[in-house]
Design brief:
mainly alpha; globular
């Protein structure tokens, strides 16, 4: 196996479990429950493109960006956790709708592709940390190219899984989607709180909190 193939596969294997498009696809079903197929597919495509762009930017200039703005990885983790928790609360306790609008589609400006799908769910603190770590260890342009292609492959896999989510939605039906939305909302709150707590503990020095 060539060095380039090892870098490519290493990037995919490192990022895919952290990006975890399988669980994001389940959340995507709930968030897009009122969208038509065309808008849902467009949101899936945009989310995957945004994710790839975010990680590639951090791969190329992540260390410089974080130093310039004085941002730490624990800070990114806490901010991402707050966003995820907010989305979870909205899914667990949806706002009541006007009965006359029950059949209406989501407005065109209601875009979930960048937030919360691409950031912080697909390209969250963990994925950014791994990407910055890969950038710090890269010694040549050759390695950067392999890692960039690995990120693109992960984005393609994410897009495929998000597209499949539409078929899962039709299989579950409206009642199943409501139940799934509540469950995923609760799980997102748990994940968000965990992100915040880990970020806070990262700020606290000392062996007990290592």
């Amino acid at each position: 196996m060539s060095d380039f193939t090892q870098i490519l596969l290493g990037t995919i294997i490192s990022l895919l479990p952290i990006v975890n498009p399988f669980s994001v696809a389940m959340t995507f079903i709930s968030l897009s429950k009122d969208m038509d197929d065309g808008k849902r597919n467009r949101q899936a495509l945009l989310a995957s493109v945004y994710m790839a762009l975010i990680l590639i930017v951090f791969l190329i200039a992540g260390v410089l960006i974080m130093r310039f703005f004085g941002i730490s990885l624990p800070g990114i983790r806490i901010a991402g956790g707050i966003i995820i928790t907010y989305i979870g609360f909205r899914m667990l306790n949806p706002e009541p709708r006007d009965p006359q609008l029950q059949g209406a589609m989501i407005p065109a400006d209601d875009d979930i592709a960048f937030t919360p799908l691409a950031m912080p769910m697909l390209s969250g603190p963990g994925a950014i940390a791994v990407t910055v770590g890969m950038a710090a260890n890269a010694d040549s342009r050759f390695e950067y190219i392999g890692e960039t292609l690995g990120i693109i492959v992960v984005a393609v896999i994410s897009y495929i899984l998000l597209r499949i989510a539409g078929s899962v939605k039709r299989m579950l039906g409206n009642y199943g989607i409501v139940i799934l939305t509540r469950i995923m909302g609760f799980l997102l709150i748990c994940i968000g709180v965990q992100f915040v707590m880990l970020g806070i503990l990262d700020f606290i020095p000392g062996p007990p909190h290592a």
